Amino acid sequence: MQKRPHDNDVAVTPQPSSYALDDPARLAALQRTALLDTPAEESFDRLARLASRALHVPIALVKLISADRQFFKSSVGLPEPWASIRELPSTQSFCHHVIATGGPLMIADARTDPLGDENAAVQKLNAIAYAGVPLVTADGLPIGTFCVMDTQPRHWTQEEMGILRDLSASVMVEIELRVAQREAERREQEVERERHAKIGALEALNERMGNILESITDAFFALDADWRFTYVNAEAERILRRPRKELLGQSIWQMFPDVLERVFHKQYRRAVEQHKVVAFEAYYAPDQVWADVRVYPTRNAQGGYDGITVYFRDITKRKRAEEAYTALLARERAARKDAQDIEARLRAVLDVLPVGVVMADAQGRPLEMNAAFKGIWGEPAPPVDGVAQYGKYRGWWAGTDHLIAPEEWGVARAVRYGETVINKEVDIETFDAKRKTVLTSAAPIRDTTGAILGGVIAELDVTQHRQLERERAEMLNTVAHEMKTPLTSIKAMAQLIRKRARRGAPQEPAHFEQIDRSTERLERLVNDLVDAARLDTNLLIIELAHADLKTICEQAAEEQIALAGRVVTLELPGRPLDAEVDQQRIGQVLANLLSNALKYSPDGSPVLLRLAREGNTARFEVVDRGPGIPVAARAQLFDRFYRVPNIKVLHGSGVGLGLGLYICHRLVELHGGQLGVESVVGEGTTFWFTLPLARS
């Protein structure tokens, strides 16, 4: 089945629900948020910035989408005037497709995607690549989108879409919190009205008791059986820092939630449950008050216990003096712990960096060395006691034979002279005798006065990158060389045919045959390059269908016999072997293996194609009696552009880019099989591969 290229990167699960932009339930849910046309808020902007940084995109948007427009609640990287206008018509973006489908949407290149046709976002916002997920309420209603955009084509990965979904969930948490807060405020107003009604009755009672209780020098309050304040004297108002009008009729646990599960809560309940007087000292952190507390259970007219009265006095000054020394010791312990925590976090960050990092003191002695640096230089690293011993690290400026002296290393220049070194390319010899190429940078570490405390060096291993650059150059040279031969032949034959045509001489069929053969050689080279490129970018499409492997073998052998004029012996099972395969691609694998076997085998030497069943798999073998493959070459045999050196081609053309076995290896892997080789120099080679058989 054909798929768009970006579908190969992320498996998208279709959402069960979809909505029109003017869906009443969806619009009602949007209105409940009360966020349309509201100012930007840091809580939303923070999530947009996080998306921009985590996904490395210039534009990130939190959108609320009504029936006719999309409002940017938050935006990062949006060009003017749209960053100021903060809205677009609903249809001038990709986001209305997210609402319509109820699921995520990814576009690798809007310029070639059907959804990008006549879409204003492509021109106005320069949105080449797009990824968006719906903002869905707890009731499953999509009210907007969280989307990111890139100004360059890109393929979105599963991990990136997972990050976007997680961030969209955080946006919905912020939105739901606001909806819940509005509902809580409405309910609070209702409760407030009821409270005022009760306060009137309680105030009448308080007025009768006031003259007596207000004369008490200690703070005093009373609670009923439901832990509601029934009386609060003036001293209690002062210490609790709440007016009695605010406290009366309210639960102590609601007014002072910080005391829950703390000493006040436990001691008050102890007095109620054990019907006894309780005395204790405790600290109330929100008001920074120490109190000496006495709690008395109270009886009702029937003799039962229906609440408590609490007497307490402020003893903060005395406690402050007692705690001064203890607090000093605690701060000292906390400072040590903070330093340890910072060191642990720094170590964790250094150890996950792919860049090798070393921090040194002012003399150049290494203080911290992360795992990546050790991985670059290998083990065991010798101890170094200052710049003078940097000679233990062997390195040369890239492309020269100039051995780097101890004082020339970047960290030495940083700690000695305060210099900063950026991306100097160096060839090194590691402690386990390997040669690598690294980019090295260094800078001094200074205190607040500018004095040098030490230095830091960062090294990035670019050995593989440089090797890829060399391979690319070699590949281009090989392609140019291999294509030049058939092109030269075609040009020569064309010129010869033109000359004969001018003279009126009859044309030789051999000339056209030569052009045809050269064209076929060029076509093979181009096809191999195209297949390799598609395999490297995961764009090669395998079209699986039910097929008989035995028939594929017979057809492949017949084609090679016709082309080479040689004998291919077949050992096939008596019955068909059925499998779900791309028949053309498996035929391509067999053709390549048979062609190689015939190419490197002498006349009269048999070439065998064998197919057999092994459990739930089919095993193919192509056996020749050619020169064999040296052991040293087998590890690279399936690499791109690799050709075994010093093996003579006995039949056919030697034209090739070293891509045939690489393509075969990848095609077999895409079918869920394996490809391998067994060879004895001087005796021959067997290439084999396996494929899973179709289930009965």
Please outline what is shown here.
The chain is an alpha+beta fold.
Characterization of the model:
The protein is α+β, with helices and mostly antiparallel strands and 696 residues long. 42% of the residues lie in helices and 24% in strands. The strands form 5 sheets. Strands 3-2-1-6-5-4 form a 6-stranded antiparallel sheet, sandwiched between helices. The chain is elongated, with a radius of gyration of 40 Å. It starts with 23 loop residues before the first helix and ends with a strand.
Shape: elongated
Q: Kindly report the average pLDDT value.
A: 83
- Strand ordering within the main sheet: 3-2-1-6-5-4
Rg on CA atoms, Å: 40 Å
**How far is it from the N-terminal to the C-terminal residue, by CA?**
23 Å
Query: Helical element count?
Result: 19
Q: Sheet bearing the most strands, described?
A: 6 strands, antiparallel
What percent of residues are in strands? 15-25%
Number of DSSP-assigned strands: 24
Class computed from helices, strands and strand pairing: alpha+beta
The residue ranges in which pLDDT falls below 50 over 5 or more consecutive positions are 1-16
- Percentage of residues assigned to helices: 40-55%
Task: Indicate the topology.
Blueprint: H1 24-33, H2 42-55, E1 59-65, E2 69-76, H3 82-85, E3 87-89, H4 95-101, E4 105-107, H5 120-124, E5 129-136, E6 142-150, H6 158-213, E7 219-224, E8 229-232, H7 234-240, H8 244-247, H9 252-255, H10 263-274, E9 278-284, E10 289-299, E11 305-314, H11 316-352, E12 356-361, E13 366-369, H12 371-377, E14 394-397, H13 410-417, E15 421-429, E16 435-446, E17 452-461, H14 463-503, H15 509-536, E18 545-548, H16 549-564, E19 568-571, E20 578-581, H17 583-599, E21 607-614, E22 617-624, H18 631-634, H19 660-670, E23 674-680, E24 684-692
Parallel strand pairs: 19-21
Antiparallel strand pairs: 1-2, 1-6, 2-3, 4-5, 5-6, 7-8, 7-11, 9-10, 10-11, 12-13, 12-17, 14-15, 15-16, 16-17, 18-20, 21-22, 22-24, 23-24
Helix pairs in contact: 2-6, 14-15, 15-19, 16-17, 17-19
